[in-house]
Amino acid sequence: MAADYDDLRPEVRESQQDSLAAVKSANAPDPRSVVRDLDSEEYQEDAEIPGGEFVDGELTVHLVPQGEDEFVCQSCFLVRHRSQIARMDATGVYCRDCEA
Asked: CA 72 to CA 13: how far, in whole Å?
């Protein structure tokens, strides 16, 4: 008699059916109701952001111009010191980290 080795053992099949029945009988919320609740919370003015807060002030950033001894790598676009130049060609200047 040939044995089907791909077929599940009877105890495994029963445990899968039991766990599926448990999931179906669980009191899980309807997915559409969860989406509706999230959408309604999105439009509340007094909603709190976890770990943060709204600030009505302006963000001010002081820009420092590129120095004469600095360059912008054409691969990673970071400002580097001239000592980090690995290659200069027609396309631009590249740093040692990008050329490694």
From this structure: 62
Residues 50-83: pLDDT tens digits? 666 666 777 788 888 999 999 999 999 999 999 9
Cβ-Cβ contacts under 8 Å for 94 (sequence gap 6 or more): 73, 74, 75, 85, 86, 87, 88
Who contacts 75 (Cβ-Cβ below 8 Å, separation ≥6)? 94, 95, 98
Please tell me whether residue 37 adopts helix, strand or coil conformation.
helix
> In this structure, which amino acid lies at residue 73?
C
Q: Which amino acid is at 14?
A: E
Whole-model pTM over 0.70: no
Name the nearest CA neighbour of 99 among 88, 86, 90.
86
